[in-house]
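#struct-queue
[09:14] JT: dropping the first one here, sequence first, then the C-alpha cells:
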Amino acid sequence: MKQCKVVCFITPRQYKLNGLWFGPEKAKRGFIFTHGLSGSTFSHHDVLSPLVDSSTMALYYNNRGHDQLVGIKHLNKRIKKGYDYKLGGQAHEIFTDCVDDIQGAIDFLRSNGVKDIYLVGHSTGCQKSIYYLSRPSKQKLVKGVVLVCPMSDYSYAVSSEKPEVLKQAVEQAEKLVKSGKPHELLPTELSEDLLDAQRYLSLYTPDSEEEIFTYAQPHKVPTTLQKVKVPILVILAEKDEYGDRPANIIGKWFKEATKAGNLEVGIVRGAVHNLTEQETEVEALIRKWAK
C-alpha cells in the first residue's frame, strides 16, 4: 500500500475539494484521477498508485459528483462566516461544473511544481475529462488523457430500461426543469438512482452535452471528442455490464470517431466495469502508453 497525504484545493470558482496525494511532494509528472458517478477520492487507488515513483505523483480527488448526496463547500466573502454549501453528489451535480473541478486540480498540481500532467477518468469521469479538454486552451495544460471504461449512459439506458419508463422519466424531468425545479428528485419508480431532474436529462438524453461517446447514435458526429487532439488511451473492460455491445466494437468506434490518429485502445480481458482484481492490468496499459 502506497503512503499518501490528505490535501484540499480551491477551484477557480471558489469550491473547496478534498483529495489524496500519492507520491513525492516534488514531482515532475502527475496523474489526476477523476472518479465516476457517485465515486469518490477513495475509488480505484490500485490503478494509479503503482505508477508513483521518485518523480511521479497521483492525485485522487472528490469532484462535485462524489457519493450520492452531499453539500459542496463554496467560499463566499459576502457571508459573515466566509462560506456556504451548494448541492452536490450524484443526485444534484451539474455536469458542466466538471470544467471548474478539473481546472482546480490542474492548478493545484502546477502550483506544486508538477509540469507533465495526465488526466485519467473512470466511467463518467471519462466524459468529464473529454468535455474539459474539448477547449483548445485546456489541451495546452496536459500531456494526454486516459479513459477507463468510457461508457455512454444514454446507450445503457436505452438498452436496459423499458421504453415506456424511460419516456415517462424524461417527460417528468423536462416538466420539472421547465417549471423551475431542476433540482427536484425524480420519484424512485422512474429512477432507481438518486437523481434530480437536470441530472437525469444530462445522463439519459441523446442531445445532452454529456452524451459524448455517441456509439449508440450512428449518424451523430462525436464533435466534442473530435476536438481533443492530445494523446488518448481508451481502456475497456471486456465484460462491462454498462456496455450495450461488445468491447471490441466500442473500441473500433473510438478509433474511427477521433480521426486524428491520437488514440490507442486496450481491452482488459474478463474485466467488469469496476475492474475489481484487475487493476494491475489497467496500470500496465497506462504505464506502457505514458512512456
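[09:21] JT: and here's the second one, same format:
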Amino acid sequence: MGKLGETAIIVCSRPDSKRVPRKVFTEFPLGKNKKTTLLMALLSRLKMTGLPIILAIPKGSGKDYESYLSMNNVHLFVGYGDDPLKRMSEAAKKYEVKNIIRVCHDKIFIDPILIKRALGIYENMAVDYLYSSFFIEGTGFEIIHGQCLHLASSIYKNVEHISYAIKAVTKNVYNWAIPMSERCGHRILVDTPKDIKVIQKIFERFKTKTIEVSLYRILEFLRIHPEITAINKQPEATIYTCVYNCEKYIEECIKSVVRQKNFNEYEYIIVNDKSKDESLEIINEYAKRYENIKIVNNKKNIGLSSSSNIALSMARGKYITRIDADDYYPSKNAVRELINCIKHSDMDAIYPANYFGSKKTIQSGEENHHVGGAIFNRRSINDIKFTDGLRGYEGLDFFHRARNYLRIGYLANPIFFYRQHDKSLSKDKSEKRKQIKEKISNDYRTAMA
C-alpha cells in the first residue's frame, strides 16, 4: 500500500445507522440540479487540509463506497465490522501512519483551519492525544499518537466512544479549550432526522459554496436565524425512571421530577417494565399533562439494567440522570444543581450524596456509588451502558466498569431521597443476590489482573 506520511485523517464510516438509516448517503442540494452526499461533502472539506484521508469501512460494505475511490488523496481500508477502534488501528498500521486525526463520518462541517491549528499544538506539546470537550456539536475531531491507538485497540474491544479507551492507556493528553467567543449552542452534526433538516437549510443558503464556506459564516447564518437552530434543539438533560410494580411510590417520584425548575427544558423518559399493578395508570395520567414525558412499555419484564439501556438508546439530552421509581427529589433545584456541577467541571460523571431513608441520614456519593441519582455526559454513559440481563447490583457492576473509563466527581450536597422499605433491593439479602455481587466483584478483579 505504501506509506502515506506521518499524519493522516481517518474517517470511520459504516452504511447503517440506528437513528438515521444510511445517513452518510443522504443527499443535499448544491443548486443548478447538482447534489452531494453527506460523506462526499465531508471528504471534500477534509481535502482542504492537504492531508491524506483514509476511509475506514466494515467488511461487506465496499460496494456502498465505490464512488468515493475516485476522489484524489482518499484511500479505502476495509475490515473489522463493528469495532471502529480496531479498524482505525489496522488502517494506520497498513498505511504506516504515526499521527491519526480521527473524524466521525457525520461531522460534515469540520473546519480545516481548526485541524491545522490543532495539529500544530499537538506537535509542539508532544502529547499522545489531543481532544476538546468544547467543540461545537458537529465540528469535533481528535488527534491520536499511533502507539496509543494500537495499545488501546489491543485492550478494549467494541467501544462506541474510543476517547475513553485512549485516555485509559496514556495520561499525556491535552484538552484543547476553544475560546468562549468561538463556542455556541448550535448543533450541526447528523444524528437525528431533525438534524438533517438543519443541514438542508445550510445547503439551501450557500448552495455550491457550502463545501468551501467557512465555519464562521455558517455559524453566523445560524445565529441570525434562530428558527433554524430551534428545529434540532436538544433537551439540556434527560431524566429517566424505570418502573416495575411501584404504585405506592411512583407518583411521588414523578411529582418531584415535574416540579423541577426548568422542567420544560428537559425530557423525562419512563420505562414501564411490564408492571402488574396500577403503576402504568398513574404514569399515563402525568404523560397526558406534560408533553415532554415519554412512556416506553416493555412487552415483557426485562429488569432494571436492560430497561435502563432502552432509556439510554432514546435519550437526547446533553446530560443523563436516573431517578429510581421509589426515590424522589426533595428540592425543586435538584436537577439544576446536578447539571451545574457537571457542566462546570471536567468530569464525565458526578455521584451526589443522598438522604438515606431519612432526612437525618446523609449517605456520601463517594462511599456509595448509587447510579440512580448520578448524572453523566450522554456520551460517557452510552459508552459504558448497563449489562443487559443483569438483575441485581447493576449499579456496582456499572461503577466497576466506569471507573476505568470515566472521570468521576462527587457532590457533597444530598440531591435525592434514597427510600428504604421492605422491597428495597438494598435490603434484599438473599443468597441469589449475594452470588450476583460476588460474581461482579470476581469478574472485575479478573479483568484488572
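[09:30] RK: nice, looked through the second one.
[09:31] RK: Residues 444-449 have pLDDT under 50 and may be disordered.
[09:31] JT: good to know. The chain has two domains: 7-183, 237-448.
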